[in-house]
TrEMBL record:
Record protein name field: Xyloglucan endotransglucosylase/hydrolase
Protein's UniProt keywords contain Signal: yes
Any matching Pfam family: Glyco_hydro_16
Role, per record: Catalyzes xyloglucan endohydrolysis (XEH) and/or endotransglycosylation (XET). Cleaves and religates xyloglucan polymers, an essential constituent of the primary cell wall, and thereby participates in cell wall construction of growing tissues.
Active-site residues from the entry: E138, E142
Coiled coil: none
Cited InterPro entries: Beta-glucanase-like, Beta-glucanase/XTH, Beta_glucanase, ConA-like_dom_sf, XET_C, XTH
EC number, as in UniProt: 2.4.1.207
Keyword set, alphabetical order: Apoplast, Cell wall, Cell wall biogenesis/degradation, Disulfide bond, Glycosidase, Hydrolase, Secreted, Signal, Transferase
Residues bearing glycans: N146
Entry comment on modification after translation: Contains at least one intrachain disulfide bond essential for its enzymatic activity.
Protein family according to the UniProt entry: Belongs to the glycosyl hydrolase 16 family.
Species of the source: Linum tenue
GO molecular function, one term: xyloglucan:xyloglucosyl transferase activity
Length: 327
């Protein structure tokens, strides 16, 4: 597997459209293997993952009108169904996006997404937490579109003090375009956990004792956007967006932030008190069963891991990749 270091992309459309460098470019599987991937994935799902669908917390879904602002797209983003559904669209002129009204300093945030169906090549649906300032922190999900019949790439990253370069990428064990699925971020002083339908797919532990920066003092907003990135998103930019399929649309529902600390101060903070009834998440770590799920997902569905990219890190992987340092 090869990684191509992409130069920083200077996009002028909008401040909310994200800029990326060092994006790993992955070669697709052969057509024959790709056609059978969805069938193979369905056969691989073990009971341990099926149990995850039963573990969502009983917290009521939020009203998008109360929780979010539509920030760009000139009418291409819509809140529908009395605040229970939000849609973003993308056409040749512009994409669209939204952001949370609240800042969060630690929390467990859940959102159900249904991604762009069909030929989504060139499109990116981004869903992320991000603080302000030049030395920002960020916790990323990005869904990289693909040709019809070929799987999405789920791209994850963690930024601290304005520096990322911690990409891990996955295929999913389901088609994310036919129904809604829950994408969660658990962020507390101990760890960051990315989960899909209750199943952990990635963990970034607090290893400050080993010299690894960890986001813990900058409140973050939740952002999402749908935009055109056909200069890099699909096969390194070889596959361009087919505008005959526009407008492209992604849908959101069932946002839950009941287990989160809403920050009401400025852009920096050192402490925030969560509701006592839900503060168990503040010290939560992955237990042995969830560690087993994490290892299973990473062994079957991870397609890129910066920790194992020796061409990118010829002098050894970053400190957090050292298993000994992580325990």
């Amino acid at each position: 597997m090869h990684t191509i270091h992409m130069p920083m992309r200077g996009r002028a459309e909008d401040q909310y459209i994200k800029k990326r460098n060092h994006i790993p470019i992955l070669h697709l599987h052969s057509p024959a293997r790709t056609r059978t991937m969805s069938t193979s994935i369905s056969l691989l799902i073990p009971p341990i993952l099926a149990l995850s669908f039963l573990l969502f917390p009983p917290i009521s879904a939020a009203d998008f009108n109360r929780e979010f602002d539509l920030t760009w797209g000139q009418g291409r983003a819509h809140i529908l169904d009395n605040g229970q559904l939000l849609t973003l669209t993308l056409d040749r002129t512009s994409g669209s996006g939204f952001q949370s009204k609240n800042h969060y300093l630690f929390g467990k945030l859940d959102m159900q997404l249904k991604l762009v169906p069909g030929n989504s090549a060139g499109t990116v649906t981004a869903y992320f937490l991000k603080s302000g300032g030049a030395a920002w922190d960020e916790i990323d999900y990005e869904f990289l579109g693909n040709l019809s019949g070929q799987p999405y790439t789920l791209h994850t990253n963690v930024f601290t003090n304005g520096k990322g370069d911690r990409e891990q990428q996955f295929r999913l064990w389901f088609d994310p375009t036919t129904d809604f699925h829950t994408y969660s971020i658990l962020w507390n002083p101990n760890t960051i956990v990315f989960s899909v339908d209750g199943t952990p797919i990635r963990e970034f532990k607090n290893l400050e004792a080993a010299g690894v920066p960890f986001p813990k003092s900058r409140p973050m907003r939740l952002y999402s956007s749908l935009w055109n990135a056909d200069d890099w998103a699909t096969r390194g930019g070889l596959v361009k967006t087919d505008w005959s399929n526009a407008p492209f649309a992604a849908s959101y529902r069932d946002f839950r932030a009941g287990e989160a600390c809403v920050w009401s101060g400025g852009e920096t903070a050192t402490f925030c008190t969560p509701p006592a009834a839900t503060s168990g998440w503040l010290n939560q770590r992955l237990d042995s069963m969830n560690q087993q799920k994490l290892r299973w997902v990473q062994s079957h569905y991870m397609i890129y891991n910066y920790c194992t990219d020796t061409k990118r890190f010829p002098h050894g992987p970053p400190t957090e990749c050292n298993t000994a340092a992580a325990h």
